[in-house]
Write a structure and sequence with these properties.
Strand content: 5-15%
Number of helices: 22
Strand order of the largest sheet: 3-4-5-6-10-11
Largest sheet: 6 strands, antiparallel
Number of strands: 16
Length: 611
């Protein structure tokens, strides 16, 4: 099991066994803090406790000072030992004191109790399986699957989630019986069974009412979080996409914190996807040592894509994993740690869908005949304005929906009621009555808008898609990626700032743009939102698209056991010829569908789950 995670920690590997109790812990180390003394699994001084820990505790020095004042002594300079001693002193209440990203397991050899916990937003992953043969856990599913007698059965609910959203909604995974520990929660495991609890949950409490105060609070919180994230005994680099989030972080690192830093960017030759000129301008303005990785159009390496897909232990449909993989590989050639801008869109209203949800809420209050008339008008313009017609139909469908269904309409790749046209009848029987829920745990009904969409994004999309992508792609190269915009100070600040300071009809990420304007050229602060995507169709080229089509429609393709062949033929034909109904699918949506099927096919071939 530990060998399966060697790529995550190339600097050291060890196991700890308590044979009498039938307990074992494993760890592979990426040495960042206390390079000589932080080896794991780490026992406490009295031998009662032992910990295996993935992540960083950024405020460990302050916690250490508090513990020393209470009489604790330390043998190392590591944050791991501070975490161990914090648990000894405060038990699970220690979690509320920690600033950082973490997934850890701590065993009490006296009580014979295992304690597991995961950070607030799910930056670090933690999977587990509670089976008749025992309790297993790991930072990746492949570690659990390396244990003996672990069943590999397809979880059909996760399969449905994947075709709708491109990732399974936690706590589900693609393997029945294996789950993901939810962010901000803990679990205790003993012979008496398991207990779980929550130590943190995202909760919007918009208390700041003045724009000036909101701007000051955001700048202070982001700067404080950045300062904490610089704790390391090795050099730190930074992603620089050219967007607001990464550009602002690099500007604050250089101008507010006086750091000299290397920056990294992926350059596409297709202008629609390429932000490298903006990144280059930011680097020149701030005087960073800048590196570019060029992704040439029509020079795709299908073997590279297969390498990317193999890193994920379950199908993953976000094709931006490809450039993320490449930039992580480049950064790792010169350093072990990098700062990234993930979390800015979620905390500060960066996604257009938040505005769209507000529009849908307003439209939903109109009389039904108005919406029907608008649908008829949208159908009329489809022949000569297919993109506009498609967007109008989705917006009107969202307006007619309620509660979390509205959020699903605005974010899904495939509508849930279309699954019967995608899956074989036997698969639909296994899926059963499928209603993906973005607002679980008995959340009250509401007229969902942008604020509720932020809530759902933080709870599900962030750990399910964006943070998973960054963790898996960086860990594939033994790189640690830190995300200051999800630091505790920023989370607290963002929760207190009303949505009107984050986005409006005039634009997105209003507060961060205003802050960026203090440090960067206007053209950077005002540039439109652009996702970190990849032009998959042009990058693959005609030959590459035909190869993907041949793989997916082959008689021995694994997806034929799950997905209707006519559906696969329709999608792959449009992708290969670049001729499809744009009133039904956008260019981006089409190639994301193809990437999702490709990911599913490769996963089925690799893991061979029982269907």
């Amino acid at each position: 099991m530990t060998d399966a995670l060697q790529h995550r920690g190339p600097d050291g590997q060890a196991t700890w066994l308590h044979e009498a109790a039938g307990v074992g812990l494993g760890h592979t180390r990426l040495a960042i803090i206390d390079l000589a003394g932080g080896a794991q699994p780490m026992p406490s001084g009295d031998g009662r406790f032992v910990i295996t820990f993935n992540g960083e505790i950024y405020n460990f020095q302050a916690v250490r000072q508090e513990l020393e004042g209470l009489g604790h002594t330390f043998r190392t300079r590591s944050d791991t030992e501070v975490l161990l001693e914090a648990y000894r002193r405060w038990g699970r209440a220690c979690l509320e004191r920690l600033h950082g990203m973490f997934a850890f397991a701590l065993y009490d050899s006296v009580e014979r109790r295992l304690f597991l916990a995961r950070d607030r937003t799910g930056i670090k992953p933690l999977y587990y399986a509670c089976l008749a043969g025992g309790f297993y856990f790991g930072s990746e599913l492949k570690a659990i699957l390396a244990a003996p007698n672990i069943p590999r059965r397809l979880n059909y609910r996760a399969l449905a989630d994947f075709l709708v959203l491109s990732y399974p909604l936690l706590p589900e995974t693609f393997f029945a019986g294996i789950q993901e520990l939810e962010p901000g929660t803990w679990m205790e495991v003993s012979n008496e069974g398991t207990r779980t609890g929550r130590f943190w949950a995202w909760q919007r409490e918009p208390k700041i009412q003045e724009a000036g105060e909101a701007l000051r609070s955001a700048e202070q919180a982001i700067t404080q979080s950045l300062r904490e994230h610089l704790i390391a005994d090795v050099p730190i680099g930074a992603f620089l996409s050219g967007g607001i989030d990464s550009s602002l972080l690099v500007a604050l690192l250089v101008k507010a914190l006086g750091q000299q830093i290397e920056t990294f960017n992926v350059r596409f030759t297709e202008a629609e996807y390429d932000e490298s000129p903006y990144a280059r301008k930011v680097a020149e303005c701030l005087g960073t040592q800048h590196h570019e990785i060029v992704l040439e159009t029509a020079e795709a390496d299908i073997g590279l894509v297969d390498d990317v897909l193999r890193q994920f232990d379950q199908p993953f449909g976000d094709s931006s994993a490809i450039p993320t993989y490449l930039i992580c590989r480049k950064i790792r050639q010169s350093m072990k740690v990098a700062i990234a801008g993930d979390g800015g869109d979620e905390m500060f209203g960066g996604y257009p869908r938040f505005r769209h949800a507000e529009t849908a809420r307003q439209l939903g209050r109109l009389p039904g005949w108005c919406l029907q008339a608008a649908r008829s008008a949208a159908g009329g313009i489809a022949p000569f304005a297919p993109d506009l017609a498609r967007q109008a139909h989705r917006m009107l469908r969202a307006a007619s929906a309620h509660d979390e269904e509205r959020l699903m309409v605005l974010s899904c790749y495939e509508f849930p009621d279309n699954l019967g046209e995608i899956f074989l009848p036997a698969v639909m029987e296994r899926i059963g009555s499928y209603v993906p829920a973005f607002l679980r745990d008995g959340a009250p009904a509401c007229d969902a808008g942008g604020g509720e969409f932020i809530d759902a994004t933080v709870r599900y999309v962030l750990p399910g898609d964006y943070l998973r992508k960054v963790d898996v792609m960086s860990s594939a190269h033994g790189l640690e990626v830190r995300v200051p915009l999800l630091g505790e100070a920023v989370l607290d600040c963002a929760a207190r700032i009303p949505e009107r300071f984050k986005y409006s009809r005039q634009g997105n990420k209003l507060l961060l743009r205003a802050l960026a304007a203090r440090y960067l050229p206007d053209e950077i602060a005002a540039k439109p939102k652009a996702g970190f995507g990849i032009p998959l169709d042009t990058w693959l080229g005609a030959q590459g698209r035909k190869e993907i089509q041949a793989t997916l429609i082959a008689p021995n393709a694994h997806i034929r056991e799950l997905v209707r062949p006519d559906y696969v033929q329709m999608l792959t034909s449009g992708f290969a010829t670049q001729e499809w109904g744009r009133a039904q699918l956008s260019r981006y949506n089409l190639y994301q569908h193809i990437y999702m099927l490709w990911s599913l096919e490769r996963w089925l071939a690799q893991w061979k789950p029982c269907l």
